[in-house]
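Standup, Tuesday
Yesterday: got the pipeline producing structure tokens again.
Today: sanity-check two examples.
Blockers: none.

Example 1:
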Amino acid sequence: MFAYLPARGGSKRIPRKNIRPLGGKPLLAHVLDVLSAVRGLKGIAVSSEDPEIRALAGSRPEVVTLAPREARLSDDRTGFLELVCEDVPRFATHFADQELMFVTATAALVPATAFEAGIARFRANPRGLTLGVTEFQPSAVLALAGAPHAELKPLFPELYTLPTGELPRTFVDAGCFYFMDLRLTTGIRRFLDLTPVQAVVLPPEVGIDLDTPEDWRRLEAAFQAKSAKSRSDR
């Protein structure tokens, strides 16, 4: 199994997100530090079209960058599955391996133990998808949908009146990591088409999907809290 990190330079909502400093160190560097300690990986790949990002990643002996990512696969419209189908194969050829851990820079606070738990879960059933998730509290079945100034309706009216203790546990993709066998991705439209879907549950202060400036503020706060706890434990 090898790890693949997509790290383009043109992120819009959080400019230069992949190398934005977190605690004085580029976001991507945090992820690479952890992946370097993960047992069970054949190698680490970073894919980018950006010279600065490529230089940062390529300065580490454990990281493979190959050629710059194609421009057509480096814009806002390129999705994860498109990268898996059109960019990841060159790294799979390099490592001579079809088992993939797709990781994002969002995973900056994910510990090595969580990645290793994902590897173990994937090994238990390698025909499916294993991903990092966070849990909805108390449950997503209580969600209301609609326009707040018009009308809201429960998404799951048949479950909405259940006692809290009987509500099913529900989870959301944390956007941090995904395990899959590349040989099974032909013809799928989304990662979740790989079944069964298995998960590693991440704490909410770890599984932070970085899409907006508010997400970045949450990440900074979680990082500072983690750093303060680490200092106090010394």
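Example 2:
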Amino acid sequence: MMASQKFDEKTMQSILQAEKDEISEYYIYEKLAKATKDPHNKEVLQHISEEELEHYNFWKKYSERDLKPSRWKLWKYYLISRMFGLTFGIKLMERGERNAQEFYNEIASVIPEAKEILQDEEEHENALIAMLNEEKLQYVGSIVLGLNDALVEITGALAGFTMSLQNTKLIAVTGLITGIAASLSMASSEYLSTKSEGGKRPGRSSLYTGVAYFLTVLLLVFPFFSFNNYYFCLGFTLFNGIFIIFIFNYYISVTKEIPFRKRFFEMACVSLGIAALTFSIGILVRVFFHI
């Protein structure tokens, strides 16, 4: 009896989807293994790609069909991994595998051997955690420091400048100078702090902090260089600030597997709260000093 006759249409479609996912992930891991230079990461990726191929062959026995990988999925996760880091790309793809695990649990009643596939899928997570040795993840603390301070300080400063100066070009120049000085100050402080604590590569830590701070400053100041209505520019800056907070916290929540919502709202509330306070201070400065 043909394997395809043993299952109803819905079950067969699920098997075909699982088979396609496995062959797609096989090619993704294989492609990433060829691209990475780290020997440990390369070995882990190759091992996982071999497991994915075994899983593909397992489902192929039941579907009796050869399937090609999803080109969209292949290039999507490969490019994400190359652009934003191997860990982020793989962890993002791993989130999709959790849905696949639900399928394995359901179909295990029909195909008991699927439990072994599920166990292999669960072991992927431990193997992936073992390969988290990307440099950028080692300096997440420094990046957080730069982003956090820039979002709070510069957003607040620009809000105060907006109400007190009411001139977009003047606000932009003042904010940019303030941001450059603050980024250099933060980088210096991070260098001295890391060195005094005996941390590794204080120069690298200070570089990540300073660059994160400066890039954030550019995104926050940009609207004031581009538009003439200072209220619109302030709104645009606040939007940019929330966008930065969203993107960064999503990145951290994926790579570090920590809750996203709480961290996002905490950072957003602090930044917006400081902006509202300094905006009020700007009004008082304008009134009392007759600017």
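Quick observation on example 2: The domain at 3-133 is CATH 1.20.1260 (Ferritin). Confidence is low (pLDDT under 50) at residues 1-5.
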